[in-house]
Each structure stands twice: as C-alpha cells, then as structure tokens.
Design goal:
The chain is mostly helical. It has six helices and four strands. It folds into two domains: 140 residues, no CATH class; 29 residues, no CATH class.
C-alpha cells in the first residue's frame, strides 16, 4: 500500500530561524503544542434545557446485516485506517464474511452503550494547509479513526436524521450536513430573498 508520511522541518520559535527541528520527536512535540493551543475547551456547566417538541421516540436502533453489508460494499477502499489498523480495503473485500460478526458488534454496542476500546482512539495526522511548511500553525490536525466505528456512526446518523425529518424537528434554515440541502442552495435562497423573492 502506498502511504504519504512526513512533515517538513519545523520552527520551534517562528521568530528564531535557528530553532528549526528535523527530528520526528521534536516535530511531533511542536505540532502537539500548536494543536493544544487552538483546541477549544468548552466551559463547564449545565447544558441548556430545551423545550419538548415531540412525544415521538426512536424505538429501535437495531441494525440488520443487509444495512451493514451495504455500508461495507460502499467503502472507499483507499481511505486511511485508524488506530485499530483495520484497513477499509480489507473490510470491503471481506464484506460478506465479516458482515454477521460486525452487525452483532454494532447491535451489542448500542444495547450496552460501550464500543470496542480500539475504536475510542485516533491517530492525529497533521495536514498542511498553506503558507510556510516550517510553521506548525500552517498545519491542521485530522483524526484518523476506526473505519468500522465510522460505519456505526454513519448508521446511527442515518436513523437520527430520518427521525428528525419525520418529526419536522429541523429548521427550514438548516442547510449544512443534510442531503439535498447544500450551502450553495442556502446562498441561492438568500440571493432570492435579497432580490425580493420572499416579498
């Protein structure tokens, strides 16, 4: 398998050209410090109380083997794997063989409220954005998580979105992260509003 790795030499102090570091350990420490500085820590406290808008509930989150198999066969085989080192290519190629076991793990996880330990960890990979490659601030962290866990998350998301749509719990102003409602459509709606299309 072909993988890209490596980060350019980084400056520990961007004001000091002599502080350039070439070693992997030094570079990882510089990136860790940068990523920790920009990480948002939510203030402690109670979460807001929302008014009840429906009496409906999601009755079951149980998944069928067919649902899991569909997801496995649609996997992008060249996506990076997570800390569990189970590659998407392997999951896709063995989809029919592993589907029953994976379905059982998914359903047990939902009932017990616990996911496998390896699925809780991620590999943080620095991705260069733009500017000087010597500056840690020009990299963004990307979390590489378990492909199997992403399939579970995708199945849960589909059920949740379906529930929200059926019970009309999504605002008409919600465009991002919804199928057939892109941010481009939102801009077109706004342009129509500005042009007087909404009276």
């Amino acid at each position: 398998m072909k993988t890209r790795s490596g980060v350019a030499p980084l400056l520990r102090n961007k004001e000091d050209p002599s502080s350039i570091k070439h070693g992997d350990k030094d570079k990882s420490e510089i990136l860790q410090k940068q990523f920790c500085q920009v990480f948002t820590v939510e203030p402690p406290g109670e979460t807001p109380t929302l008014s009840l808008r429906t009496n409906s509930k999601i009755e079951s989150l149980e998944f069928t083997e067919n649902m899991v198999l569909t997801k496995l066969l649609k996997l992008n085989a060249w996506k990076s794997c997570g800390k569990d080192e189970v590659h998407a290519y392997l999951l896709k190629e063995l989809a029919h063989e592993i589907c029953p076991g994976l379905t059982a793990i998914f359903n047990h996880s939902l009932v017990s409220g616990v996911i496998p330990l390896d699925w809780r960890f991620a590999i943080i990979s620095p991705i260069f954005k733009k500017g000087s490659k010597k500056l840690a601030e020009n990299y963004r962290p990307v979390s590489l998580t378990s492909v199997a866990c992403k399939i579970l998350e995708s199945l849960v998301r589909e059920k949740l979105i379906c529930f929200l749509k059926e019970n009309k719990l999504l605002s008409e102003k919600q465009f991002g992260f919804l199928g057939q409602r892109s941010t481009i459509l939102q801009l077109l709606n706004y342009l129509d509003y500005c042009a007087g299309g909404y009276g």
